[in-house]
Amino acid sequence: MAGRAVQPGRLRRRLTVAFVAVAGFSMAALATGSYAMVSRARFADSLSRAATDVRYQLVLAHQFLPLDQTRTANLLDSFEGSGRHVVLVTAQSVTASNVAFRAEPGDRTRSLAATGQVAFERTGRQLVVGGQIPGSTDQLYVVYAEERIYEDLAQLRTAMLASWAAAVLLAALVGRALARRTLEPVGRASEAAHAIAEGLLATRLPVRNRDEFGAWAESFNRMAEALEAKIAALASAQARERRFTADVAHELRTPVTALVAAASMLREHLQALPDTARRPAEIVVSDVVRLRHLVDELLEISRLDAGQELVSARPTELVALLRAIVASRGWQAQAKVEGEAVTVHTDPRRLERVLANLVANAVEHGGAGVHVRVGPGPSVQVSDRGPGIPAEHLPRLFERFYKSDPARGGSGSGLGLAIALENARLLQADLRVESEVGVGTRFQLTLPVTYRLPDGEATVGSAGHGEAHDTFEEGPS
Amino acid sequence: MEGRVLIVEDDASIREVIALGLTRAGLRVSTATNGTDALAAWRAHDYDLVVLDVMLPGRDGLEVCQEIRRTSQQPILMVTALSDTIDVVVGLEAGADDYLRKPFEMPELVARVRALLRRGSAPAEQEIVAVGELRLDPLRFTAHKSGRELVLTATEFRLLLELARRPGLVFTREVLLERVWNYPFLGDSRLVDVAVQRLRAKVEDDPASPRLIRTVRGAGYKLAL
After folding, report:
1. pLDDT, tens digit, 9 for 90 and up, residues A200-209
2. Which pLDDT score, from 0 to 100, does residue A64 have?
3. Helical spans, DSSP H, in A307-334
4. What is the CATH number assigned to the segment(s) A311-458?
5. Which of B91, B121, B151 represents a domain boundary (last residue)?
6. Distance of alpha carbon A334 from alpha carbon A366, whole angstroms
């Protein structure tokens, strides 16, 4: 299943990050905008108050004209006494009422003031506003401290930053929860799909809400139902087919029994028959053998289908078993067995069925060059140098009655490889085939590694089949 | 070869060909087509052996086998179309001495029948074998344990005799198949297991924990000294 490793929770994290980014960005924009508005309003307000005040102060300053040294001192004292720090700018000098607030207005301010308007400039954290004293060329500037405004704005900045941080944190929490809630159906669907893939076809998704996920869950469930129905239909069709096979095999068995027994008697008297009857009788005798073989294989495969076959395991040496198979069937000329002795704990009769069918298939299609090799480990390779099997036929090779070349009849029943595969499954062995046209075909059987238990019994992984002999034994004796 | 054989088989062709084959082998043959007729024929005549099909209409082969075993220890050869090994085992437990699977070739059936008849009539040795409480008389085909007579079939007797001839020695299932059943039988050693089980039921004080006929795991059986 794990073709690509998908990191779980990655989409959730991405959704959360996006949520936080949007929230953070809009909060920042809002805060910056508000701050700009507040600060502009505060400075404008401060300036307009100062301007109103200055106009009045200039009229008051007019009372001190003409400004000689004494009057200048009086003027400065008077303003300083009223709590205003002023700067008097004459053609000769710039005099401040308080040295701590000595601001020197710039040229632009002075020339603007010279036209009779109220002029201002901001230096440091001070607002300097002034104009020409009516009836003179001297200018008077009042210096207003704007420290408070700066302090207030600094406070505002701090507050806004803090609330921005709090908002981002909140957004992260809410976003995470939201993403989790949103993606929960996705996770459930993924688990459900996995369960279906594992074979739990009854798996369904809960339909909670009438939203997109609800609709999705509904269509997922419909898909699962369709799949379940389809598979059930296929399974019952297969069961019918298998029952039919079993019934046919059993029905054939009685006439075949009579035929086999009769033919075996006929065989002993072939020479006594008249010439005209001898050859047909020979054909009957030899084809009864084929018929018997076919019925036997049909019965075997229906027994395997029924799944009630017992496995009776015992230590089995592969090379010796293969040599015995080859020798007992007279294949010494066509098939060579090699490899080092390997002993496995398995059912020798079933293993013989598998190996004999593989070698028979190789001898039939591969001619003389059949090579049987044991190893490495508990595995057997049966290779032939026959015509090979085209790739498109390979997946169906183990099907019943499947012939890759219908024109070539062959003497086999067409069940040999299917039986080999079923028996291999029973032994929990792995059977695979590879072939190249013009080069040959190679079957590989790999048996499970068996472990010897302390009391002398062995186990094959999680084999569910009891050892048949145990039925008749009374336990450790 | 002398011998009267009862053939019980419902299929006419199979019945006929078996009868033909056994007649050619020099045996005297009677036939029955169902279980009820078979038991009637068995009671009316004196047969040396029964060839019994398992699947019969009415009373089936297992019932017939059990019924015959209640009064007789004559050899019974079960012929079965049943493919499952378990059914074969059930047949053997019902008291059959041997079984033959359908389809079979006539020479094999004849060989099995001959082996069973030989077992019933000509034991291998004449001397009385005594091991512990056991006393076996091959000449009379009788077995006693602590003076009490054991009722054994021919197969069971020969199995016990084989084990008792060399007490303490381990016999593999294959060796027992060859010596007791008279033919080399590759693979299906269940025949031995079932016979041992049946023998224990008759010989052991407590068949659930046998003290006399012991299993040697992974090897075979032996008679404890």
Report:
1. 888 888 887 7
2. 84
3. 318-328
4. 3.30.565.10
5. B121
6. 9
Angstrom distance (rounded) from CA A14 to CA A26: 18
Other C-beta atoms lying within 10 Å of the C-beta of residue A339: 16
- In chain B, residues with a C-beta closer than 8 Å to the C-beta of A469 are 189, 193
The bridge status of strand A430-436 relative to strand A379-384 is unpaired
Burial class (CB in 10 A: 0-12, 13-18, 19+), B70: exposed
**What's the average model confidence in pLDDT over A451-455?**
49
Give the residue ranges of DSSP H helices in A268-317.
Answer: 275-306
The encoded tokens of residue B121 equal 């009539």
- Residue B161 belongs to domain spanning: 129-223
**Which residues 6+ apart lie within 8 Å of A100 measured at CB?**
A85
User: Would the pLDDT of B8 be above 90?
Assistant: yes
A411 versus A331: the higher-pLDDT residue is: A331
B210 → chain A, closest CA residue: A474
The model's pTM is 0.58
Residue A29 burial (10 A CB sphere; 0-12, 13-18, 19+): exposed
CA distance B55 to B33: 11
Residue A68, phi then psi, degrees to nearest 5 = -90, -165
Asked if B30 contacts B41 with a C-beta cutoff of 8 angstroms, the reply is yes
Asked whether residue B116 carries a pLDDT value surpassing 50, the answer given is yes
| Domain A10-156: CATH superfamily, name plus number | PAS domain (3.30.450.20)
Contact A261 B103 (CB under 8 A): yes
Residues of chain A neighbouring B103 (CB-CB closer than 8 A): 253, 256-257, 259-261, 292, 295-296
Instruction: Tell me the two tokens of residue A372.
Output: 């049987």
Domain count along chain B: 2
- Bridge-partner residues for A431, per DSSP? A445
Range A158-164 contact pairs with CB under 8 angstroms and sequence separation of 24 or more: A160/A31, A160/A34, A160/A35, A161/A31, A163/A27, A163/A31, A164/A24, A164/A27, A164/A28, A164/A31
